[in-house]
Backbone:
């Protein structure tokens, strides 16, 4: 992915990979107990750890958000072939991830670092 979409797309790939690894590690710790994602989330909600930055629940949430961003990016690339990658990314970011980033993250972590 980074070769085709720019070096900074490696950040997206790394984030997605990290969240998948977190979920897989939890699953591998007890495959029969964690056969379904719901069981991981339920356990963390009951333990009051679901909102922790290192929770599987949080990882699943951000994995879903990253997928929303990528779907919107690919939609933009299909619908607007005349757009530059930066324009497609800016639009996708604004529609999906921007609302979850604070003003500091949004201003310092530019879309260009995501897709340049």
Residues:
């Amino acid at each position: 992915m980074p070769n085709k979409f720019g070096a900074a797309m490696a950040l997206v790939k790394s984030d997605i990979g990290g969240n998948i690894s977190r979920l897989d590690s939890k699953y591998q710790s007890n495959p029969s107990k964690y056969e379904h994602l719901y069981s991981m989330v339920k356990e963390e909600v009951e333990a009051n750890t679901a909102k922790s930055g290192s929770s599987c629940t949080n990882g699943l949430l951000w994995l879903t958000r990253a997928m929303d961003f990528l779907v919107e990016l690919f939609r933009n690339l299909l619908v607007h072939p005349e757009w530059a990658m930066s324009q497609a990314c800016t639009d996708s970011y604004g529609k999906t991830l921007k609302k979850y980033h604070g003003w500091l993250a949004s201003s310092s972590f530019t879309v260009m670092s995501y897709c340049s």
Observations:
- The chain has one domain: 5-114.
